[in-house]
Amino acid sequence: MDKQFKIDITKGSSSKLEKTNFDELAFGQVTSDHMFVADYIEGKWQNFRIEPYAPLQVNPANATLHYGQSVFEGLKAYRNEQGEILVFRGDANQKRLNESAKRMCIPEIPKEIFMEGMRCLLEVDREWVPKQAGCSLYLRPFIFAADDYLGIRPSKKYKFMILASPVGKYYAKPVAVKVETRFARAIEGGTGAAKAAGNYAGSLYPALKAQKDGYDQLLWTDGKTHQYIEESGTMNVMFVIDGVLITAPTTTGTILKGITRDSVLTLAHEMGMPVEERFLTVIELEEALNSGKLEEAFGTGTAATVAFIRLINIHGKDYELKEVAPTAFSVRILEALDNIKYGKVEDKYNWIKKY
Ligand code: COI
Predict the structure, then answer these.
(1) pLDDT score for 1
(2) Which CATH number fits domain 175-341: 2.40.50.180, 3.90.1150.10, 3.30.499.10, 3.20.10.10?
(3) What pLDDT sits at residue 171?
(4) Which of 109, 128, 245, 329 has its CA 20 to 30 Å from the CA of residue 149?
(5) Which atom of ligand 1 is nearest to the CA of 260?
(6) What is the residue-wise DSSP string for 298-324?
(7) Domain residues of the chain, as ranges?
């Protein structure tokens, strides 16, 4: 890639801003007026552009449609009280996108294209960053195979795009989860650590089955023995047992290296909270529920930040968790993260980039 690259900007003739109700934002329903696009052709990222948001023309033989060679990211832009736009840990998302891309034989995106594409989109669609408390602009960078070819091989052409979507809360209330011991989200040697589209597709069927039984999401266990807790739904999962914060390590290749996960662990250390990065067994979890030692359980991810768990089903038995107290670790950590994201406190870890 050339050191200097130019982004062509084509602005739309109309805006959806007026029609968008920013006071009632659900997750992912509205997209902003523009999108960033780049093409990978003949071994080179090129044609950097901001375009009006519009459907793409897809050839029916497109490789992504058939073989799912596609990876994505999610990150958020927040508006502070001065009206500045703050993006939380975008460099970490850029790095992880490339780690996912590598696993899926997708060419990496140079940092400057990711960062400059995002900056440019935020400049053009600045008004789309919500002013409402608790809201943000969700950014969705993704790369997908663009070959029109029915044979199976790594595609030769790709598209990298960034979309933006103003969002409110992901979960309106605490969730009920069910320990899954038949299906697996990931296996060792698989693609679980990558933010690959297919991982999410494969999780839909078991999740839907759980939803039919009245649960919001699953607590995934390892694919081999189903004895160890791995993640929850599309999030990393954490437990507070007897004053200790426990979450699965990211060493097996089955756990997504969550950026919220990492942020929570960093702040937990700062708060003096004992942390154990280790696999919790289903048996341990059940014992902690029976003995009353399970104090808190919650998912962590970009979309929800912290998703409080109110009920866990283990082998057909429902266990209700204690109501989350205002002094609970998960409540304090959510507040601490929000304070950083909305620029209300000092950004000690250099997590924020201002636009
Ligand atoms: C996240 O919260 O990090 C996600 O990836 C959620 C997305 C699948 C909607």
Answers:
(1) 56
(2) 3.20.10.10
(3) 84
(4) 109
(5) 3
(6) EEEETTTEEEEEEEEEETTEEEEPPPP
(7) 8-167, 175-341
Q: Which ligand 1 atom sits nearest the alpha carbon of residue 27?
A: 9
Q: What tokens appear for 289 in the block? A: 């529920």
Among 88, 260, 302, 334, which is best to mutate for testing ligand 1, by the most ligand atoms less than 8 A from CB?
A: 302
Q: Of all protein residues, whose CA lies closest to atom 6 belonging to ligand 1?
A: 303
Burial class of residue 256 (count of CB atoms within 10 Å of its CB; 0-12, 13-18, 19+): buried
With a 6 Å cutoff on the Cβ, whether 236 touches ligand 1 is no
- For the domain 8-167, what is the CATH code? 3.30.470.10
Cβ of residue 74 lying under 6 Å from some atom of ligand 1: yes
Cα(252)–Cα(270) distance, integer angstroms: 26
What's the pLDDT tens digit per position in 166-190?
999 888 899 999 999 999 999 999 9
pTM of whole model > 0.70?
Answer: yes
Q: How far apart are CA 289 and CA 280, in angstroms?
A: 13
- For residue 349, report the phi and psi dihedrals to the nearest 5 degrees: -100, 5
How far is ligand 1, taken at its centre, from the CA of residue 138, in Å?
10
At 186-205, the pLDDT tens digits run: 999 999 999 999 999 999 99
State in Å: Cα 41 to ligand 1 middle. Answer: 29
Q: How far apart are CA 312 and CA 178, in angstroms?
A: 6
> Nearest Cα to 59, choosing from 165, 139, 141, 155?
155
Residues making up the chain, counted from first to last: 355
**Which residues make Cβ contacts (< 8 Å) with residue 154, sequence separation at least 6?**
69, 105, 106, 145
234 lines ligand 1 (CB under 6 A): yes
302 lines ligand 1 (CB under 6 A): yes
Segments of the chain with pLDDT less than 50: none
